[in-house]
TrEMBL record:
This is Secreted protein. Keywords: Membrane, Transmembrane, Transmembrane helix. The chain crosses the membrane at residues 20-41, 201-224, 236-259, 425-445. It comes from the Bacteria.
Length: 452
């Protein structure tokens, strides 16, 4: 009876070994699936962030910032032409040519913004409104230029009918078109900021999940090998050892790629996109600001208004404590580096000093220009506007372009680096999944066969 009982009890004991192998193997496979699922989720999330910031909403924001600049410069060129009068034929033709160039840039930027708006009805309405308003502005500006051509006046303020027509054009530009262009930039900028804030939380969390899932998978693989080694009294199998090494490689590579993407997103947003947008806004405001000099000269009734707007824009670009324009000129000339405003944070960069020095040169030239206007020397003021003021502003604008180009390079490199690392991860995952699956099968199946 004892022998019969032993024989009956034996098969369940033998069947429990393959059952245990299947259970442990199943848990190991599940942990590996969790690891690769976490890697896939992290890769998709990072890819989405890079796409929005680097390919969709980010470029759209830069395009609409370029629109703001083109619109500002259009109005500045019209004001320049109106104060030139019948003199300075070459400069007048150059200003008209630049006006046409900026008009084309504005239309292209609007079309691009319209295309990139996709199914967003608010952005589409804003773009359509801008297109309609730009057409009305061009008609008013054309009328002012035609009346100015017929008047054939001396350099300085044009006749009243020219000024009245230009007022309608510049009011449409300053009060309607530029705010709409700025709102278009803000709308898309909100998408970029929201995407970055989301990915800045999600990607690190997924990266932690990858680490936890990877460690769990490694622990399960070690558990499986220890169980097999003890049960079959053999050394660790080479196939499962290789699977463990492959899992470790996949874990390290996945964590490294997600870390690179996290850093790429940060650099693209903070050191690239934010600075590119800041410099673009500063350049657009500065262009409108130097246009206020011509408006200050051509419209005597609004001279005080244009002087105040010049100061407001100057403070927006580089803020220094000042109650009026004269005080601001002195504060800029004192070479204080403790400034706020759009360019304040950018001055610490390696090309920030060049921007600051050229900005000081432009403000110094503006001081002399306003002195000539105050003395009633309109012809000399126009000459200064075309000579020292224009040269100083062009130097400042070129310094801004250099700074913007450097930030654009940082932005593009960060996006390219992030996307390249993700491409490598996607190429690795199929091989890792297939290879580890085969190694698991090769390590477990021979042990199961022993019980068949």
């Amino acid at each position: 009876m004892t022998m019969v009982q032993a024989r009956v009890a034996s098969p369940p004991a033998r069947r429990s070994v393959p059952g245990s192998i299947r259970v442990i193997s199943g848990i190991t496979v599940a942990s590996l699936a969790l690891l690769f699922a976490a890697l896939a989720v992290g890769g998709v999330s990072a890819r989405d962030g890079l796409r929005v910031i680097g390919r969709d909403a980010g470029p759209q924001v830069v395009a609409t910032a370029g629109l703001y600049f083109a619109l500002s410069d259009m109005d500045a060129q019209v004001a320049d032409v109106l104060v030139l009068g019948r003199a300075y034929e070459q400069q007048r033709r150059a200003a008209l040519a630049r006006y046409d160039e900026r008009r084309l840039e504005a239309n292209r930027a609007l079309l691009k913004a319209f295309e990139l708006s996709g199914d967003n009805p608010a952005e589409r309405r804003t773009a359509e409104s801008l297109l309609d308003g730009l057409g009305r502005y061009e008609r008013l500006a054309g009328q002012a230029l035609l009346l100015n051509e017929r008047s054939s006046h001396e350099p300085g303020p044009p006749p009243d009918e020219v000024v009245r027509t230009y007022r309608q054009a510049t009011d449409l530009m300053r009060l309607v078109l530029l705010p709409q262009a700025y709102n278009l930039t803000l709308e898309n900028g909100t998408i970029v900021r929201r995407t970055y804030d989301e990915k800045a939380v999600v990607v690190p969390l997924v990266r932690v999940a990858v680490v936890v899932a990877g460690l769990l998978a490694l622990a399960c693989l070690v558990w499986l090998q220890v169980f097999l080694a003890r049960r079959f009294r053999r050394v660790f199998g080479p196939a499962l050892l290789a699977a463990t090494v492959a899992t470790l490689v996949a874990l390290v590579a996945g964590v490294a790629v997600l870390g690179q993407d996290q850093e790429a997103l940060r650099r693209a947003k903070k050191a690239g996109f934010d600075s590119v947008l800041t410099v673009a806004r500063a350049r657009a405001i500065s262009t409108s600001m130097q246009g206020d000099e011509s408006r200050y000269l051509l419209d005597k009734e609004r001279a005080d208004t244009y002087e105040h707007t010049f100061l407001d824009k100057s403070l927006a670009v580089l803020y220094l404590e000042a109650g009026n324009l004269s005080t601001y000129h002195k504060a800029v000339a004192e070479r204080s580096s403790k400034a706020l405003g759009l360019l304040g944070p950018e001055l610490a960069a390696r090309d920030g000093q060049a921007v600051l020095e050229t900005y000081r040169g432009f403000q110094a030239a503006d001081t002399e220009f306003r002195r000539l206007v105050a003395e009633g020397r309109n012809a000399d003021a126009v000459a200064a506007r075309l000579g020292p003021v224009r040269q100083a502003f062009d130097a400042y604008d070129q310094a801004l372009l250099v700074m913007s180009g450097r930030h654009e390079n940082v932005f593009e490199r960060a996006i390219d680096t992030g996307e390249s690392s993700l491409d490598n991860l996607w190429r690795l995952l199929p091989f890792a999944i297939g290879g580890i699956a085969l190694l698991m099968f090769a390590g477990v199946w021979p042990r199961l066969k022993e019980y068949r």
